[in-house]
Amino acid sequence: MASLLNEIPRESLQNLLSSVRVYAPPHISAPAPLLSSLSRGNVIEVQGPASSGKTHLLYHFVLLCIAPSRQMSIDFGGNGLAAVIYDTDASFDVARLHQLLLARLSLFLPHNIEMARRLTEESLHRLHVFRPTSLLQLATSLLHLPSYHRVSIPEHEIGLIAVDSLSSFYWTDRFIAEQMRNVPHREPEPSSVNPLQHVLTALGRLRLSHAPFIILTNWGLNLASQSSGPVTFYKQHLHSFPVYSENLDASALPSSITDDLPPTPMPLPLTHHVTLLPVSIPPFAPEISLGDAIQQEVGYRRSMVQKGEITGLVRTTGRHEITRLTLCITPENVHIRHS
Q: Which residues pair with 10 in a beta bridge?
């Protein structure tokens, strides 16, 4: 695997994310076009195994969104926009985000820590975290997000919407779908069997009406075959989930933003797909129990994420090449290692 990765062009995360800062002001008449670089309306899927760094990569996106852009003639590198997080895994740690954001802003204000603290608190007011307990609850919350925006945060444009993770209710919903299919003399509606479709429809509507940057984290459960390329990726286990294709151009947003949206499900094309590579773990002792092995594996992966480097493979819709990014994580910072 290491030799194969060396053949993949390396792209720093900073270069990949530098074009995030292209959000137009609120009440724009036309959204920016969807480019191969990250811009408003883009949809990115982050896939990887447990404790592979998905949430920490999300922290970096959120920091870019909510951090101030420019104050006191200092460019803080943020967008100053609102970020809406749907934390279905209960893994999004606001205290950790606060730590990372304060460390980031303190680098710009080394002699004024009080100002850095104040800006950190102001930035966190632009963060909104919801914790739905089902896909249908998630879909309902997404459908009502425009109303929440108008009533609760009218002063801030929504720059980012993230679901961490879409896989949280996979087994529960799969069980319910199987039960419904087994009900005699009843033909279940596809939308009721697959609640994920409601979520994708709601996200599609928000993509058209608000043009946020959308991030969807997803579990990597089963490795895909290597027959299609030199690098192994994960199979998509979520039914009706948008699929990355190197031969498909991302659908552009319409020329104007309107509330007059049709009731049919909106398309949600992926513009980028990031696969976070699994962390290698040492062999288990022969006498270890299954429970201890699982606990040891999760703990080892988590410790590696906290102190090490995360490697991701980036695929962009409409492009054949695969690029590599490296995210370096320390207790005080999530920083970029430039190539």
A: 324
- Where in the sequence is the domain holding 316, given as residue range(s)? 2-254+262-336
With a pLDDT cut of 90, the percent of the chain lying above it is 31
For residues 252 and 21, what is the distance between their CA atoms, to the nearest angstrom? 19
CA dist 27 and 10 (Å) reads: 37
pLDDT (0 to 100) of residue 141: 96
Tell me phi and psi for residue 115, to 5 degrees.
-65, -40
Query: What is the Cα–Cα distance from 319 to 245, expressed in whole angstroms?
Result: 8
CA distances from 68 to 44, 71, 76, 108, 165 (A): 23, 7, 6, 12, 27
> Which pTM value belongs to this model?
0.75
- Which residue in the block uniquely carries the two structure tokens 């797909």? 273
Q: Starting from the edge strand earliest in sequence, which strands make up the sheet with 322-330, in order?
A: 127-130, 82-87, 158-164, 213-219, 43-48, 272-276, 309-316, 322-330, 333-336
User: Residue 230's pLDDT is what?
Assistant: 53
Alpha helices in 109-164 (DSSP H): 113-124, 135-143, 145-152
Q: How far apart are CA 250 and CA 246, in angstroms?
A: 10
Q: Domains in the chain: how many in total? A: 1
pLDDT at position 77: 84
> CB–CB of 106/113 below 8 Å?
yes
The rounded percent of the chain whose pLDDT value lies above 70 is 67
- Kindly report the CATH number assigned to the domain that includes residue 332: 3.40.50.300
